[in-house]
Structure formats: structure tokens, C-alpha cells
Amino acid sequence: MKQINGSICAPQGFTAAGVHAGIRKNSDKLDLTVIYSQVPAVSAGVFTTNQVKAAPITLTMAHLKHEGLVQAVVVNSGNANACTGPLGMQHTEQMAKTVAKALHLSPQRVAVASTGVIGVTLPIDKITQGIELAIVNLGDKGEDAAKAIMTTDTFAKQIAIEMQIDGKTVRIGGIAKGSGMIHPNMATMLGFITTDAVISQSALHYALIKANQRSFNMITVDGDSSTNDMVLAMANGLAKNTIIQASDDPNWDIFYQGLLFVCTYLAKEIVKDGEGATKLIEVQVSGAASEEDAQIAARTVCRSPLVKTAVFGEDANWGRIACALGASGADFNSEQLRIELDGLLLFENGSPLLFDEAVAKKILQQKNILIKAHLGKGQSNATAWGCDLTYDYIKINASYRS
Q: Could you list the active site residues?
């Protein structure tokens, strides 16, 4: 497996475009993306578990249940089309139909996603015109597509890899957006993954669920789960490898490891770009009684406002880490608990240790902060990623609609 240039257009048969449709107020940014596969693609998705689901989530979930095939995706930024009533669903259906008509597809083979402000009706005329413009401009434009799905993101998030499966070169590409309203609860953002692998819908779905649990579900910026979260994977089979039918196929694990790499890379890019963030926090938990306990503990430390603000203030306040672990609900032995900061031991066997505050300060001045916690209960481990909590997070979200 190796990383290559490109993103969602790197796999065979995929094109994309990102255009300016004029959705955002007082902005000339790209704000509408279309992704297209030359042939129908076996597809799978994971979606927000928020009970308030945006219209595009509801429609795309229904389309996936119909055949499990998607050939085109349309995404608008600047407007979430969430909590917009029956008109919101009509607009979502109109987006799918506009794409389908232009590309001569069934509307049920079109996925729709939206991101932006909740509770505002879509400017549907601008969006349909933008869709037509995007389809005319379809090509090797993965970077434009990645930029057009951004909201408060400060940079485009994209990646492509290739690997050998059954003697064939298989590629996986991905783009994602996310900066705020990020918390592990299924997808926690928008992500679109393309591959030319030949794989069954059930095998792809299982791979995506498993990869999602260990990547996007292990990040948090602010503890809020969006109404619009979606990760969609499309596999069009143009690599012509022998079909991967199920998870017990030896080639499934090769594919899964590639998918996990792509998902983890994009997940970390989202956290690095957390609203107002200046530091990436990685929390590695070991010695847990189960993987679930390890995940809960790691995510809770990443989510803790007190830990996040201590990292921002470059204060090695390990007591906040211990407090978060204790409140997480994970089973651990407090008398065997160990806490480290990038190799600097802070707490061990239930007792604080003398450590060099100057060394700790120097560690916390870095952009990437590594926190390790050993729970003393078993052999399971997990890693979660978060970011610091800064003054700018408040500034960004206090005036989000303006």
C-alpha cells in the first residue's frame, strides 16, 4: 500500500467537479460538488445517529436500501437543509432528479448530502443551476470537489492510495469536511470514498462500519453530533480483481487495511482543522478490559473541556486526565493507573510523581500532543484524536450564522 497523488478521482472511472453556485451569503467560494462514476458503483454508508436527521440523510439512506448502488453524488455546502420540513425533502429530491436527468440515471442511484446552517431553506434555483454547471465541468477535479464541501474548514481534506489485490492495482480515494460539530456518533462529518475494487455490497458495508468505528468515531472537536453526518463509499469494480465476497476472504483484509488508512488519515485531518484549534491531541489507552472500554476512555479524555483547555494553556494538569478517565464509565484500576505525556511519566500506581515542569511545558508547546493512559485491567487498547479548545472556537461559533 502506498499513498499517491490525488483523491476521489484517483480510482479508475471516477470524475468530479466543484463549482460556485452562490449558496453562501457574500461569498465567492466553491459550494457545490458532484462526484460521478462511469458505471454503477456498489455503495455503503454510515450516517448520523442524531434523531434530528436532515432531508438528504433520509433520502440517501432510502436510496441505498433500494439497490445498494450509487453512480453519482451531489453535495452542497453553506446550507444543511435540516429542520426544513416537507419543502426540504422536496428540494433534496429535486437535487437528485436534476443530477439524474443530466447524467441519464435513475434518481435512486444519486446520493445527496448537505452541510451548513440548520433551519434555512435551500436556494434551490441556484443549486440546480450549480448542478448543471458541475456536470458540464466533470473531470479530474478532486481538489475542487474537496474545497466545495467545506464550511468553516480552513483547508481541503483529501487522500488517495493504491495497493495490489489479486495481482491487480486497486485504488482508494477520499475527501472529507469537518471542523466543528464533530463528535463520535456514527460518521461525525461528511466523507466520500471512491474505489475501483470489485467487492460485494455486504463486504464493503462491513469494511466501512469497522473502519468508521476506529477512525471517524474516534475523533471529537466539541462533543456535538451533527444532523447531517454521512460517510459514503462507492466501489465501481473497474480494477477487475477477483470479487471480494465476504470478510473471510483473504483479500478483504487487504482492502480493509487500505480503507482504514484512508479513513484514519481523513479523521486526523478533521481534528487538526478543528474550529480554532492549534494542537492535535492523540490519546492512546492501553490495559483496558475490552476494546469498548478503551475507546470510551480515550474519547472521554479527548472530549474533556478541562483537558482541552489545559493543552491550549500548555499546563501539564494530569489531574484533569485522571478525572476524565474516572468519569468515562470505563472499568479501570485506579491503583494501577498510569498517565504519560509524550513519554514523560506523570502519575503511576495511584500516586503523583515528581516531574520536570519545564520539560512538560516544552512538550505541550508542540503541535502534536501525545497522552498515554494504562488502565491496569486487561490487554485491550484504542486511540482517539481531539484538539485543544481555544478562544477562537467561541468567536467562530458565536457568529456562525452571520
A: 188
